From TrEMBL:
Keyword list, A-Z: Membrane, Transmembrane, Transmembrane helix
Residue ranges of domain DUF7702 in the record: 19-255
The UniProt record lists the keyword Lyase: no
Lineage, opening ranks: Eukaryota, Fungi, Dikarya, Ascomycota, Pezizomycotina
Bilayer-crossing regions: 20-38, 58-77, 97-115, 136-157, 169-187, 199-220, 232-260
The keyword Transmembrane appears for this protein: yes
InterPro entries referenced in this protein's UniProt entry, alphabetically: DUF7702 (IPR056119)
Domain of life: Eukaryota
Name this polypeptide is given: DUF7702 domain-containing protein
Length: 282
């Protein structure tokens, strides 16, 4: 048996897997630094929240953005693999769970980018070109995503295939809904959205084929043969269907948000007056 296809009964992590973990650590550390810087400037320049604008709040929203959370999850999972060549069973379960949980921030970021596309060119809270019912749908599909992933992870841990199957089916249904939603936005709001907002939706649609591969990897991780195991499985599959797909999706989504909320530089930023600041007595 090759080092890239170790069986689940073996307790050592292959050299190839450790190399992938090192690459993952480096790549997502860079992504985290880049997204933190860009997101902070976007938060400060546009500030779509009702709370009073401040530097700590901008840093908080930037650090705990969806791409930021994904980066932190990937850094944590790769650090566990690098830390020891003979991981315990609990570490293997945790690493496998993090591989699955990492899909939810990507789906959440799709939701947030779509919402931002309706506010392209606008400053402050509100001012969306989308009706309230559509905004509710953009927010709403996040919840079944979390539910589906939780079902898949819990089903895998407690060895209840029924839960995992339910989670996988639900995730596929939600992804199909997102594809339909984005396709409808591209047709229905072609003349309603500003050019920057429409381009943001278009760029988001470019991420869907790669996100589909990542969704299928989640399903195969739960129910596929041992070669799809994130710890002992084939490293080429992990690198191509997992790591590479996430990097590509993150790149498209960051580009989409950069189009919807362009940054012209520090000199081009201005402080946005929030609703709280406009009310007297605050």
């Amino acid at each position: 048996m090759s080092s890239d296809t170790l069986s689940p009964t073996e307790t050592s992590v292959s050299v190839s897997k450790r190399n992938i973990a090192i690459a993952e650590l480096v790549i997502f550390s860079l992504i985290h630094i880049i997204q933190l810087s860009v997101r902070y400037m976007q938060e400060w320049k546009y500030w779509h929240h009702n709370k009073r604008q401040s530097i700590p709040r901008c840093l908080f929203y930037s650090w705990f953005s969806m791409i930021g959370l994904l980066s932190q999850i990937r850094i944590a999972s790769s650090a566990m693999i690098i830390s020891t060549s003979n991981p315990t069973e609990s570490m293997l379960i945790a690493e496998s769970s993090l591989q699955s949980v990492g899909l939810s921030p990507l789906m959440f970021e799709v939701s947030l980018v779509l919402l931002r596309s309706g506010q392209a060119g606008e400053h402050g809270p509100g001012n969306s070109k989308y009706p309230k019912s559509l905004r509710i749908m953009m927010h709403g599909f996040r919840f079944p995503v979390v539910f589906a992933i939780v079902l898949g992870v819990v089903g895998s841990i407690i060895k209840m295939p029924a839960l995992g199957k339910a989670g996988s089916i639900l995730l596929i249904v939600v992804f199909a809904f997102v594809c339909g939603l984005i396709s409808w936005l591209l047709v229905k709001f072609r003349t309603t959205l500003p050019l920057a907002g429409y381009r943001a939706v278009l760029l988001t649609s470019c991420a869907l084929p790669f996100l589909l591969v990542r969704v299928m990897y989640f399903v195969l991780l739960e129910f596929g043969p041992p070669k799809f195991n994130p710890v002992y499985g084939n490293v080429a599959i992990l690198a191509s269907m997992g790591l590479l797909m996430e990097i590509i999706v993150v790149s498209w989504l960051m580009a989409a948000r950069a189009v919807a909320e362009p940054i012209s530089g520090f000199m081009g930023m201005k402080r946005i007056t929030s609703i709280d600041e406009e009310q007297p007595g605050n």
